[in-house]
Amino acid sequence: MTVADLFDGQHGRVVLMNAEAGLESKLREIGFCEGDLIEVITRGPLGGQPLAVRLNRRIIAMRLDEAAALVVDVHHG
Q1: Model-wide pTM > 0.70
Q2: Number of domains observed in the structure of the chain
């Protein structure tokens, strides 16, 4: 499952970045890392993008292709 698959309000823990080197580098610069807990807050009205996600007490807007590159385990509780 990826961040793009999460429902609004659902949490996941990043287990893998499945992206080309350029996108992976960009995601790491933003602050994403394996082990991070992510929450999808909401999605935009046009095709579900951008996604607003909470990462380490910050809210980040991301495109679906970026969200699809972050493989997560769904976090319960």
Answers
A1: yes
A2: 1
